[in-house]
Amino acid sequence: GFSQYYFVERQIAFVGLAIVFMFGVSLLNPRSVRRLALMLFFGMIAVMAAVLMFGDEINGARRWVRLAGLSLQPSEFAKPAFVVFAAWGLAEARRRNDMPGLSIAVAAYLVFAGLLVQQPDVGQTMLVTIVWAAMLIMAGQPIAWALALGGASIVGLSVAYLTLPYVRLRLDRFVNPTPGDNSQADRALQSFLEGGFFGRGPGEGTIKNVLPDAHTDFIFAVVAEEYGVIACLALLALFGFIVVRIFARTLDEPDDFIRLAVTGLSLMFGLQALINMAVNAGLLPPKGMTLPFISAGGSSTIAVGIGLGMVLALTRRRATVSSVKAPRFGGSDPMVTRGEVNQGSSVR
């Protein structure tokens, strides 16, 4: 019953909001980023707890809250906030012995992951756990901790397989696919065959008419059919370039908090994109995870914008006393700094 360009118009509006949030957050300093993450994390944790008690159940899950006629998924906003908050705790644990930073970071993970499991949202729980384990290793914690977390995740997946019918169905179909069962993954894979290298043309795809969640979880399959494998590879390369570029900015970062936060945020961004594309290509069972900025959805799009805004804020080059250029003094070198001109004196 929606108009032809309903999702297009909504997504343009959400992308515009995401850009505004990304630009606004990018202007913050590291201390303000920490404060924003603290408020956002605890605020969204409270909303997630309220949704579990009072929210509507949709397809067997309680993940969304209605606000001003819009559907909000608080866990999407909690993800970047959790990464920054946990990075602060892990950095403080390395810097100060009297600060229970590690305990705070562990408690934040347990609370967040516990609420995700209760929704239930197995895919997001796995994503958060992988990023959290990587941050533990980067923070210098024993690798045994990450291995123990991996073992606990395997146990958790086993429990989910035995207790959640939709998880069992997805895994069974992935491990033992039945030809012609017309499942989401089977239809998505078919779109790659239909599109070939260069696609059938914009708007010419037909798989999207019979593929559930074609505008969200399986948008990459629509891209494959209409624009071809070449476009999919270009999109993959673009996500990879962003992640590698962010990693490169942290190589010489002396601040543990900034290094952990930026690396964690880039991992969250890159892994979410990789998981979505892998599901569409039939390499992973369906996870219900969106493709950042491409999938339709306000919560995901705006939350990704906030997360990348935090990355920009934490990696932005800032002027220091030694980098301030001095004005020209007669025939002096314009690149000489004020400190070099006035050697032995303090720079005002």
Mind sketching the topology for me?
Blueprint: H1 6-26, H2 30-54, E1 65-67, E2 70-72, H3 74-95, H4 101-118, H5 122-138, H6 143-163, H7 165-175, H8 184-195, H9 219-249, H10 256-280, H11 298-315, H12 338-341
Antiparallel strand pairs: 1-2
Keywords, please?
single chain, 348 residues, mainly alpha, two-stranded antiparallel ribbon, 12 helices, 65% helix, globular
In brief:
The protein has helices at 6-26, 30-54, 74-95, 101-118, 122-138, 143-163, 165-175, 184-195, 219-249, 256-280, 298-315, 338-341; strands spanning 65-67, 70-72. The protein has 348 residues and is mainly alpha-helical. Strands 1-2 form a two-stranded antiparallel sheet.
What this model shows, in words?
There is one protein chain. The chain is an all-alpha fold and 348 residues long. It is 65% helix and 2% strand. The chain contains 12 helices and 2 strands, in the order ααββαααααααααα. The chain has a two-stranded antiparallel ribbon with strand order 1-2. Strand 1 and strand 2 (70-72) form a beta hairpin. Helix 2 crosses helix 3. The longest helix has 31 residues, at 219-249. The protein is globular, with a radius of gyration of 23 Å. The termini are far apart. 37% of the residues are buried.
